[in-house]
């Protein structure tokens, strides 16, 4: 991993971390939802600080370059996050629909 | 048998009066209009004519409107729900045939079908209908000649299923689901008119999307519904 990439990763992670904390304080993000992002940013910081370990793992796993392993991890993380979000939207959608029906039946004269 | 006609209506101000007049004149059943948060004056027309209607505060689509009708039917103890489009394409004189078929043959679902005795005309729309018919036959072995028909009667068993399972839509894939659950589905011959006012929900892109969704749902989801012992 190049030094530039490591610095970018650290800066972005710290920013993500700070943004999360701020949103939680403003009560715009639930603590439960913030946990995954805080853990994610920690993992990124660890990866950029201990780049030797990342290189060792990526060689063992057969990646052509350590940076590929970093991207692979990030993409995997994002995919899982999107999927979880998607499920949540479905659940919310269903709840709103039921509310919709409930109100309609209540207002029926 | 208490029968409820559910008329889902979204921006049907031009058609709704005619539809309700047709139902009142040509059948003796109760009806309910489900106004799916129309942006035109559908609701005003319902109020002015003192129609029996439910008004949804948020627009949620056809499936939700039908489900709403089912919930109403359950609350007021109806035995049968017949889905009847508010756009003037269906004729109320066939409602009795559907109810009779249901009573006599002990069916759970009766479809008002255009092609029981008549041949399917050749058009792109009917080509889509044929594909769905073929896939239903492939997965269930049953033949439904007009799977996309929007005029359907459901009995209590099917109504309960609709209320409890939010993934069920009034579309062909749900028929496969009901077959797999062991419900009896039959068809009766009806006539349908062409739409006079307003736009159809399905344009070219939507049709392709619809076909894709149906084929996918039937082959990969509904096909694996487990049969419940009852």
CATH architecture of chain B: Alpha-Beta Complex
Shape of chain A: elongated
Total strands of chain B:
7
The gross shape of chain B turns out to be: globular
Q: Enumerate how many helices of chain A there are, as a single number.
A: 4
Q: Give the count of structural domains of chain B.
A: 1
Mean pLDDT figure of chain A: 91
CATH superfamily of chain B: Spore Coat Polysaccharide Biosynthesis Protein SpsA, Chain A
| Terminal Cα span of chain A | 69 Å
* N-C termini distance of chain B: 23 Å
Please indicate the count of domains of chain A.
1
Average predicted confidence as pLDDT of chain B: 88
What is the rounded Rg of chain B? 17 Å
Strand order of the largest sheet of chain B: 3-2-1-4-6-5-7
Binned strand content of chain A: under 5%
Low-confidence stretches of chain A: none
Structure write-up:
The complex is a heterodimer of chains A (109) and B (230). The mean pLDDT of chain A is 91. Chain A has one domain (3-107). In chain A, helix 1 (3-25) runs antiparallel to helix 2. The termini of chain A are far apart. Chain A has helices at 3-25, 31-49, 51-61, 66-107. Chain A is an all-alpha fold. Chain B has 230 residues and is an alpha/beta fold. Chain B has one domain (3-224): Alpha-Beta Complex (Spore Coat Polysaccharide Biosynthesis Protein SpsA, Chain A), CATH 3.90.550. Chain B has a 7-stranded mixed beta sheet with strand order 3-2-1-4-6-5-7, sandwiched between helices. In chain B, helix 5 runs parallel beside helix 8 (204-221) and helix 7 runs parallel beside helix 8 (204-221). The mean pLDDT of chain B is 88. The interface between A and B is small, with 10 and 13 residues.
């Amino acid at each position: 991993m190049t030094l530039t990439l490591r610095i970018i990763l650290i800066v972005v992670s710290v920013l993500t971390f700070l943004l999360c904390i701020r949103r939680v304080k403003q009560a715009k993000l639930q603590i439960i939802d913030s946990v995954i992002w805080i853990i994610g940013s920690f993992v990124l910081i660890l990866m950029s600080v201990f780049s030797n370990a990342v290189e060792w793992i990526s060689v063992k796993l057969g990646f052509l370059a350590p940076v590929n392993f970093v991207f692979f991890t990030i993409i995997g993380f994002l995919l899982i996050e999107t999927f979880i979000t998607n499920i949540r939207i479905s659940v919310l959608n269903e709840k709103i629909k039921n509310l919709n029906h409930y109100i309609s039946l209540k207002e029926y004269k | 048998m208490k029968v409820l006609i559910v008329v889902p209506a979204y921006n049907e101000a031009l058609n709704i009066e005619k539809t309700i007049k047709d139902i009142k004149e040509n059948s003796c059943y109760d009806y309910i209009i489900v106004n799916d948060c129309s942006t035109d004056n559908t609701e005003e027309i319902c109020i002015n004519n003192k129609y029996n209607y439910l008004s949804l505060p948020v627009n949620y689509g056809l499936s939700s409107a039908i489900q709403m009708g089912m919930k109403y039917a359950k609350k007021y103890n109806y035995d049968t729900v017949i889905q009847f489009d508010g756009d003037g394409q269906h004729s109320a004189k066939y409602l009795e045939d559907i109810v009779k078929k249901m009573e006599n043959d002990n069916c759970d679902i009766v479809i008002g079908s255009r092609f029981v005795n008549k041949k399917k005309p050749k058009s792109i729309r009917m080509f889509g209908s044929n594909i769905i018919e073929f896939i239903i036959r492939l997965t269930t072995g049953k033949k439904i000649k007009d799977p996309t028909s929007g005029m359907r009667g459901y009995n209590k068993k099917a109504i309960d299923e609709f209320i409890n399972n939010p993934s069920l839509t009034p579309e062909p894939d749900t028929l496969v689901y009901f077959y797999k659950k062991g419900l009896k589905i039959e068809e009766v011959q009806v006539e349908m008119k062409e739409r006079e006012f307003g736009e159809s929900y399905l344009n070219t892109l939507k049709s392709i999307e619809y076909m894709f969704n149906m084929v996918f749902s039937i082959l990969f989801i509904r096909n694996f519904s487990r049969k419940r012992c009852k």
